[in-house]
Each structure stands twice: as structure tokens, then as C-alpha cells.
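Discussion board: Methods & Data

I've been asked by a reviewer to show the raw model output for two of the constructs in my manuscript, not just the figures. I'm not sure how much to include, so I'm pasting the format here to get opinions. Each protein appears as its amino acid sequence followed by a line of C-alpha cells. Is this the kind of thing reviewers expect to see in a supplement, or should I convert it first? Here is construct A:
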Amino acid sequence: MLSKVVILGLKLMMVKKLLLAGGVLLLGACSSAPDPMDERIEAAIKLCQSDSAKAFSHTVDGLRVMCDSGSSYIIRGDISLEQIVEMDRVYCSSMGIRDFVSSKSGEIKLACNDGSNYVL
């Protein structure tokens, strides 16, 4: 009788471990990397004011976006699309950025469509 209780206890422990492992796997599957197509569409909308970009490249060196309007972006380091949109608003009066280059060290070169240039 005692051996049946021990065996039943071991089986319950195994079931708990399997359920825990299954839960971990399920959570891992839900937190997958973002879809590259979504990233391209978001970059085109925020940077090119369009639903598409002329060219898009995401490499170890950084993100490069070329818009149909002729604007180009080379984004390196820890800068977000939202920060670039804010720079367009502040420095270019939301008239658009012609050229944008950021470095991993944080330096930013910004040229607006109105001809003004900035090094930040």
C-alpha cells in the first residue's frame, strides 16, 4: 500500500514538471521576434510618410532606409524611429528629413528638406 502511495506521488511530480515545461515552451513561442515586414512598414510610414520604401536594409551595421521622395536614413546605435520623427518636428518643422545618419557613438548628422543642416 505504501509503495502505491509513493508511486502515485512520483507520478504527480512528473506531471507537474511536464506541465511546467510545457508552459515555459508556450511562453517562449509567444515572445518570438517581430516580423521583419512589420518593421519595414513601420519604418516606411514613420520615415517616408508612405506605406512603402524604395530600399530597406537591416544589417549588423544598422538600418538603412531610402524613400521614394529621395530621403535616406542610416540608423546606427540606440535611436528609435520615434526619436527621428521628433527630430524632424523640432529641427525640420515637420517638413521632412533629406538625409539622416547616426553613429554608434551617438553623433547624428541631419539635413532637412528646407536645406538646413545639423550635427547633434
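Construct B, same format:
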Amino acid sequence: MAVNDWDYFYSYIAEPRTRTEVDEFVHLETLELHGKLISPNHQTGRKLTIMLACEKAPAEGQLVTYDRPVLGNLDTSKRAMVAYLLLPAPHVNRIVSVVASNKPLEALLMTTKIYRNKALVRSVNVFTRQCNVPPSRRV
């Protein structure tokens, strides 16, 4: 996908247990990448939005486990595709810094086969166009 626009949202909220005690802070951060597909050939020009959100940080000392090896999902329609991905906050921060550099960007998603207009996203790559990713691997 060739990225031609992006939106960013950040919020940090005190989650009070009572009116005087705060026991948790909620960190919300979302980056949306908008663009058009540049590959495969039969899909070229189709609109794609990739929404990257931060997953909730684990409590101190809590082990993080995942029930399946996916980052998110991809929904498709005749006119557009939307991918929603959940990433650790430091990764979203790194991607925001690359996007804010104002260099031409591309994004690559690796998904399972689309079935009933849905697929699972297994990986995401965001890079400047000067990166050495073979054209055959770009989405």
C-alpha cells in the first residue's frame, strides 16, 4: 500500500477507583494510515486503511500470553479494505515517528487467505519507499 494520508490520536486518562484515589492510568493511542493498494495487480488502486492501536500494558509482574498468533483482522468490501491491528505502545510510537518524517511511505500486510470478506493479519511493515523490499512482496 502506498500511504498518502494519516491521522493520529493520543489520550492518557486517570481511571479513578474512588473520587480521591487513582489506581490506574489508561493510555490510548491510535494511528491510521490511509492509501491505495499497489499490489497485487488485480487489486491496484483499491482503498486501504490500516488502524494501529496500542494494547493495554500488562500489570507489573503480570505475564503476557496470547491465544493465537495474529496482530488483528482485515475486513474487505468491494470499494475498500480496513485492517485493525493491536500493537504494544512502543511499537506504535516508533511507527508514528517514521510517519511524521514526511517521507514517502509504504505499508505491507501479511494476512491469511480472505474468506467471507475477512482475514487475519499476521504481520505489518511500515517503511520509506527507499527501503529494499522486493516489489513482489509489497501490498
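Answer (T.O., handling editor elsewhere):
This is acceptable in a supplement if you add a one-line summary per construct. For B, something like: Residues 17 and 126 are 39 Å apart (CA to CA).
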